[in-house]
Amino acid sequence: MTWGLREVSVTRGRKQAIADVTVPVDPARITVLIGGDGAGKSTCLEVLAGLLEPCSGTVFRPPKELIGYVPATAGFYADLTVQENLDFSASAYRLSGREYTAKAAELLEKTGLGPARRRLGGQLSGGMQRKLAVGMALLHTPGLLILDEPTTGVDPLSRAELWRLISGAAAAGTAVAASTTYVNEAARAAWVVLLEAGKAAANASPAQILKDVPGALGTATGSARPTPLSWRRGASWRVWAPDGRLPDGTQPVRPDFEDAVVTATLASERGR
Amino acid sequence: MDALAEARQATRRFGQITAVDAVSLSVRRGEILGLLGANGAGKTTLIRLLLGLLSPSRGVIRLFGEPVTIATRRRVGYVPQTLGLYAGLTVTENWNFTAAAFRTRRGGPLPGSIAAWRKDVVGDLPLGVQRQVAFAVALSHQPELLVLDEPTSGTGPLASARLWEGIREATDAGAGALVTTHNMEEAEQCDRLVIMADGKVVAEGTADEITAGRTVTGILARDWSGAFALLDAGGVAVELHGTVLRTGAPPALVAQLLSGAGIDATVETIPASLEEAFAAIVAAPDEVTALAAPATGQSPR
Question: Which class is domain B213-296?
Fold first, then answer.
């Protein structure tokens, strides 16, 4: 790996926030950290960004001026206009006038924020605020872009625009580490780290995670939960048999990525 | 009476703005209806109309076949995105407060799903647990209709599956549910979907019906980053899936742009995901035209 975490642990107070987590982040690749609230996603990203010291493990990151970081909340100034936010970011990164003008124009066009240039950050919609924050982090063409839940709560159209912006950075060579709670965003990544209670429950490409589902998966109907390792999928149930022996009345199904993520989380939960 | 909640040609205006425009829909007993739309599509206004928090400028709203009153509203369980819990109170205190508000028996036992946190202050709990608590509290008075705004936002995949188990349990027992969501996996959990744009219903049906016949263009190129940069700069909205590109632009246009730039690629037509179908449905017709703009020499939007 070029950038990332190797076997990093962080203890916050008496609580272990993450334990032996490895997160590979490579140029022109998107690594996605997926997991629920409190799984350790933000801790991993804060360590990668250099905002938090790990208790153990190794962190690989470029010099600070080559990092772009967007925290889960804000990442822009609510009392400044869109243009002022970009200006501020440019001066913080000491961009030259010409470099800045070209890049800012490109970002305003790509984010669709051009017409909102004179509006205050705090008055933008949630989706536009996230686009502004990501745009500010991309202004200095970082080698490593770190995004903490850039799309949570954002509507599907703005989410697609945000991912286009992020993918564009990756296509231009930036290494991207982003966290999400949406399974379909993880399915699109080059590498996925599934976090559950501070541990990596899966750490591979989406295709590999899909291949690694142990045992058998089936589907069943009815309102009663078929086995303890079952969960709802639409009107029917998914039934997971780690030993490969599905109970009677279940039809085997080929797992999709969502199933793979749920089985890996269940397996990790059982191992605790 | 099959329709638990019903809007018939319901319109709501705010000054010059028509937030909900002649919308008809119904939530039936035993079903989960998903309501999708971009921000500003009119979902929240529609829900406020159905809950009787707003009255329609035109058209009819019915709850359980009657005009909305305090009595009909009492038969609804509502979980807003902000959860509607008192963050400074414990789980038990929240539970008892709601019971008192709905005049159900005070101090009934907490359901097993949240009993473990009964003494915890709600604001100190992880979001996934807070969502479980809000959901259990909303179900405490055995509502016949559940209205859930982004029920699993911010929770992990397994926690989401567990919340959905609770929603299904309620609808299996005969309740109906209206769920708004931005999450397409969550939308696929629903029995039926209604898509809104600009205050109107623009599509309706099961997830399979909505995606049926819709396709996108898949692009497999060794130089995927070059292909992405070229199409992106050409105004073609491209998505990156690993190293495969997907776009709603027609394959002929994509192939032409790529070969024009000397990029070797396999371009094929593939079935659209629900998210892609949604984007195509809510996009304005002129935006679809704009995608073809580079070929005709007009500048893209």
Answer: alpha beta
